[in-house]
Design the sequence.
């Protein structure tokens, strides 16, 4: 499903959630028999910054977890970044990182610890 017309609203939801210090959840996917479409929309939601997705059918739980639960690779990278952080801007793993990247890594580790 093309959500291009809703892009401003989607971005506003993510920004409001971040500003409020709360998790932001992507909306439902109504085509419960379209597993590929659900998986694609959930993956897009994560790329856009959502923390999860609202679900309307049990068949959506596993693909939602696949999209939003941090992978072992992501966890390992976040742990390495947090361990290497010295404060301020620095080089890590071939890129420049700042405190905001460390905060994002810590948030990912918190999400992983909660199993979400």
Sequence:
């Amino acid at each position: 499903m093309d959500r291009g017309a809703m892009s401003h609203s989607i971005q506003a939801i993510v920004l409001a959630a971040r500003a409020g210090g709360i998790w932001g959840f992507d909306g439902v996917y109504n085509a419960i028999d379209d597993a590929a479409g659900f998986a694609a929309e959930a993956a897009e939601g994560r790329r856009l910054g959502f923390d999860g997705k609202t679900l309307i059918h049990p068949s959506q739980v596993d693909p939602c977890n696949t999209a939003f639960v941090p992978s072992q690779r992501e966890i390992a990278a976040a742990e390495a970044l947090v361990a290497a952080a010295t404060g301020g801007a620095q080089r890590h793993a071939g890129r420049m990182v700042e405190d905001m990247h460390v905060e994002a890594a810590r948030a990912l580790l918190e999400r992983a610890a909660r199993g979400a």
The longest helix spans residues 99-114.
